[in-house]
Every structure is written in structure tokens, then in C-alpha cells.
Amino acid sequence: MQFEFIKIEKQVVKGVSLIQLNRPKELNALCLELMEELVHAFKLLDQDEETRCIVLTGNERAFAAGADIKQMAGRTAIDMLKIDQFSKWDSIKKTKTPVIAAVSGFALGGGCELAMLCDMIVASESAQFGQPEIKIGVMPGAGGTQRLTRAVGKALAMEMVLTGKFITAREAWNAGLINRVVPVEIYLQEALKLATQVASMSPIASQLAKESVLKAFDSPLEEGLQFERKNFYMLFATEDQKEGMAAFVEKRNPDFKGK
After folding, report:
1. Is 113 a catalytic residue?
2. How far, in Å, CA of 57 to CA of 153, rounded?
């Protein structure tokens, strides 16, 4: 598939591939075509054995300023049901490889939801997060009421969703929405640095650990503990577990093969 609205760079650093949203004139608004390309990009990289972590970014001015409102303005409820645009989000959510969002500028509406769909977020000091859908007569529909509430709590989520309030990167960090805030000049480098750390680990262990953390959001504690335990035991069937523990005993760095 040829990509028009995104760019992919495999192995931008060892073990890390980069996806960049590429609609700069539209502030990377998430049109249906862009989301379709994202689905294909994530599937492609998820199947790439050399890619152990994915970084998703936009540009300094905007990660993504929201959905493409022009595509939705005249549609009916039946139109929206038939388009089933959120199935693309469900597909991206299934990505097994850890994903880090590198956010600068606007991350609003669908842009904020897309960042939250990632596993971690590194933000520049200029980043702004918000769910302003209420200002155009609708509400978040790609996880904004659910993931935001789980990340920052009811009070702040209610204020953001019901008033359309934006929060700064520093406020987002204080609320637990993002991992770190860095100067604009180095936000992508910092995301790649974090991704390199993730990529240096056993990819099988990383995938199962990610799966287990996400399980905590949709299961009772006892069920989550059982799920975690099964994944823990499963890793003892891997060569990476043998290598990792041998390296620890021998006081050397492990050489994980993803097997």
C-alpha cells in the first residue's frame, strides 16, 4: 500500500520504527483515509520482527488537531453506523508491539484519543490536550470519555469533556495522562530514546507485559491476576527467558532474539 497521509521510517534507530502523520496543512486532522493508512501501517510494523517498538508522531505544531469535521458535518446517524469509522481504532488497539506517542502542539479530540490509544506519551512543552467535541454539539467517540477518565480521574475528565477545556503538557503530566514533558526541540528524540529502551528488552516479554497491563483496565483484580500469571508462566517457554536469566547470573548484557 502506498501512503499519502502518513510516513513510515523503519529502524529509525535500532529496533524502533516511526510513523508520522502527514497532513500538515490540516493540522493532521484524522480523515478516514489517514486512519485507514494507520491501520495498514500498524499491521505492517506489528509483523516486522525487527520492529520492537513503534513511535507515532505528528509535527511540532500539531500531533493531530482532531477528526476531519468536514467529512462528518453532513452525515446522518445511519451514515455513521455504516461507515463504522471506529472499527479502525479497534484494529489499531490490537497492535501487540509497544507504541509511544511523541506529541507536540495540538492533541485535540481524535488527536487526544489517538495519543491515549498508545501505550506511553512523551510530550513537548507546547503540547495541549483536549476533548472539545462538546463545542460542536457532539461528544468524544473514540475512547475520550473512557481512557481519559481512567487516566486523569472523573473530576478533570468531566471538566474537559463538558467544557472543551484544553490542558497543558505540564497539567497532563501532573494528572497522570503522559509520561514526561520535554523541550520542543527534543520531544521526538526523547520518545525515540524511550522506545530504544523498550526495544532492548525481549519482544515477547514486552508484548505479554503490555497485554497484561491493558487487561487491568477491563477486568476485576482477581481475573487480571490470573491473566498476568498465565503470561508470566508462558514466558518460561521462551529462549529469551533462558538468555535473560543466564545473562543476569553471568553478569553480562542479555542478547534477546525474540524467540
Report:
1. yes
2. 25
Rounded Cα–Cα distance for residues 97 and 206 (Å):
8
Catalytic residue among 62, 67, 123, 195: 67
Active-site choice (110, 111, 143, 144):
110
Write down the catalytic residue from 130, 133, 157, 190.
133
**Among this protein's residues, is 66 annotated catalytic?**
no
The dotted CATH code for 203-250 is: 1.10.12.10
Residues 6+ apart with CB under 8 A from 115: 63, 64, 101, 103, 107, 121, 129
Find, among 144, 143, 34, the residue nearest to 93 by Cα. Answer: 143
In this predicted structure, what is the pLDDT of residue 197?
97
> Do 6-199 and 203-250 show the same overall fold?
no
Fold of 6-199: 2-enoyl-CoA Hydratase; Chain A, domain 1 (3.90.226)
pLDDT tens by residue, 192-223: 999 999 999 999 999 999 999 999 988 999 99
Catalytic site includes residue 110: yes
Q: Is 123 helix (H, G, I), strand (E, B) or coil?
A: strand
Q: Which of 62, 101, 113, 191 is catalytic?
A: 113
